[in-house]
Amino acid sequence: RPMDSEQSPPLFRPTDGSYRWNGVAYQPYKQDGSAPFKDISRQTLFLDPTLGCELRYFDMDAAGYSTLERHEHTHAVMIFRGRGQCLLGTEVRDVKEHDLITIPAWTWHQFRASGDAPMGFLCMVNTVRDRPVLPTEAELAALRAVPAVARFLDS
């Protein structure tokens, strides 16, 4: 059943070229203090229950990063601008514009922008999803036992 016009987003929302879109709220990434992160914001580009998924855009300043977390739901991510690194489980990968990353359920993950330029990424997730889980001290120690992960987390 189609949504009524009060609930549905406009059919066209132009951008001014600054990685923001008309009619799309520019929001903090998470509530301050809820989890460790640095210099990152989010915008929900599409949220329509008839789609069953949500498309979000995350933007990080140079050297910014998302929270190290995992959860039951899967992510589909495309690096939209810039470059940096992505932790996926115990693997660290360099990422750049247009790279695609699938984050399987219950996989530790984190994105970090390079130190010299911002990085932005599109993220598609289910509309109904679980909340992120942060690592315990023991889980963080196990991750840090992998030298590449320790270097990534300390960068």
Describe this structure in words.
The chain has 155 residues and is mainly beta. The protein has two helices and nine strands; from the N terminus they run E-E-E-E-E-E-E-E-E-H-H. Strands 1-2-3-9-4-7 form a six-stranded antiparallel sheet, with no helix packed on it. Strands 6-5-8 form a three-stranded antiparallel sheet. It is globular. The protein starts with 26 loop residues before the first strand and ends with a helix.
Brief digest:
This protein has 155 residues and is mostly beta strands. The protein has helices at 137-144, 147-154, and strands at 27-28, 38-47, 53-65, 75-81, 83-88, 91-96, 100-103, 109-113, 119-126. The strands form 2 sheets. It has a 6-stranded antiparallel beta sheet, with no helix packed on it.
Q: Fraction of residues in helices?
A: 10-25%
Which series of helices and strands comes N to C?
A: EEEEEEEEEHH
Give the rounded overall mean pLDDT. Answer: 90
Main β-sheet, in a few words?
6 strands, antiparallel
Question: How many DSSP-defined strands?
Answer: 9
Percent range for β-strand residues: 35-45%
Largest sheet strand order: 1-2-3-9-4-7
**Overall 3D geometry?**
globular
Salient structural properties:
disordered N terminus, 6-stranded antiparallel beta sheet, mainly beta, 3-stranded antiparallel beta sheet, 155 residues
How is the topology of this model organized?
Blueprint: E1 27-28, E2 38-47, E3 53-65, E4 75-81, E5 83-88, E6 91-96, E7 100-103, E8 109-113, E9 119-126, H1 137-144, H2 147-154
Antiparallel strand pairs: 1-2, 2-3, 3-9, 4-7, 4-9, 5-6, 5-8
